[in-house]
Amino acid sequence: MNHKKNEDKSQEKDSALHVMGGIHSSHDGMKRKKRRRFVKKETSVNIDSLFHSIAAGSRNDLARGITLIESMKRSDHDLAQNLLQKALPYTGESVRIGVSGVPGAGKSTFIETFGLMLADKGHKVAVLAIDPSSAVSGGSILGDKTRMEKLTNHPNAFIRPSPTSGTLGGVHRKTRETMLLCEAAGFDIILIETVGVGQSEIAVRNMVDFFAMVAITGAGDDLQGMKKGIMEITDLIIVHKADGDNVRRAKRTAREFKQILHYLQPATPGWLSTALPVSSYEKTGHEEVWETIHDFREKVMEIGYWDDRRKNQVKNWFHDMIYEELVEQFFRRDGVKEKVAQLEAKILADELPVTKAMELLFQEDQ
């Protein structure tokens, strides 16, 4: 009797294993087999295939390509550069728009509403949402799962959140390369949402064609939060949340900003910066923003500055990378990190002035 029960249980176990499919009674063998497949997948990236998929419009493969570009692994560097080399002939045809603003102004809300309008018109819209970095993990705090949900699901849109990783200007150090890959994927409008960090937003200005600042009503309050240096690099101020009882105040604020901008040096030659009231809640003003960007492009192209600005940006990018590489090479040299630590200790102990410590650090090169 007991033997019969044990036989039935054995059959039940065999049946369960059979139904689940893929589970093998030799557990250790299964683990070794999976691990081999995983390693093979991780180490074999076919760049030709990846690029063709990106160019064909695969958003998943575009995300894979960007991850490869952002990778800090030395082994991924050559692969990423090969991918960018293939993408380069297909870049440069988009309108690159930077969007920044004071905290609480609703940058993400504006970008989602604006992006949806453009995507519905047939444009392919890529949003590079630069999130503040977590002090613990170094990764994005927000991410695309918690905002811009409607735009994320639009077939003509692609959103990529990236951490600033401590980079000055509120942008990821690989944002420029990511932008190029998005252009190669066919996106004709690139929106770069940045962390509002003050005058260092010049880093964004140096990689986009058009720079917009999102503000809120009450020009006096806004001016305290927006330094003159930011306004001098702005092509358009978007006075956001112009809805309900706030419409009149928003229009007045826009007029006040226009007056101020009139007396500042233009951010772009041939263009007079302006301000517009916009409501993402009532979906008003976004058409006017797009018309303003269209007018901007026509006027700046007419005087030949559109191409000049992009050439200058590429040159500045090249120089920035030279400085970054020099710093990295310096710290990779034998004994440099240890010597820096020793000199830092002496500086903090008031045993050496900073200038003398610098002389000692570089004296072997003299």
Give average pLDDT, whole number: 81
Helix-strand category? alpha/beta
Give the fraction of residues assigned to helices. 40-55%
Rg: 27 Å
Main sheet overview: 7 strands, parallel
Cα end-to-end separation:
93 Å
Strand segment count? 7
Q: What does the overall shape look like?
A: globular
Annotation field: number of helices: 16
Strand share of the residues? 5-15%
Written as H for each helix and E for each strand, in order along the chain, the element string is HHHHHEHEHEHEHEHHEHEHHHH
Give the strand order of the largest sheet, numbering strands 1, 2, ... along the chain.
Answer: 3-2-4-1-5-6-7
Runs with pLDDT <50, length 5+?
Answer: 9-33, 38-42, 133-146, 166-170
Family: Belongs to the SIMIBI class G3E GTPase family. ArgK/MeaB subfamily.
Biased composition (Basic and acidic residues): 1-16
Pfam families: MeaB
Region (Disordered): 1-33
Note down, in words, how this protein is organized.
The protein has 366 residues and is an alpha/beta fold. The chain has 16 helices and seven strands. It has helices at 2-20, 27-43, 47-55, 59-70, 74-87, 107-120, 149-152, 175-184, 202-205, 219-225, 228-231, 247-262, 286-302, 305-332, 336-348, 354-362, and strands at 95-101, 125-131, 157-163, 189-193, 210-215, 236-239, 274-277. The protein has a seven-stranded parallel sheet with strand order 3-2-4-1-5-6-7, sandwiched between helices. Strand 6, helix 12 (247-262) and strand 7 form a beta-alpha-beta unit. Residues 1-33 are annotated as: Disordered. InterPro entries: GTPase_ArgK (IPR005129), P-loop_NTPase (IPR027417). GO terms for molecular function: GTP binding; GTPase activity. It comes from Candidatus Pseudogracilibacillus intestinigallinarum.
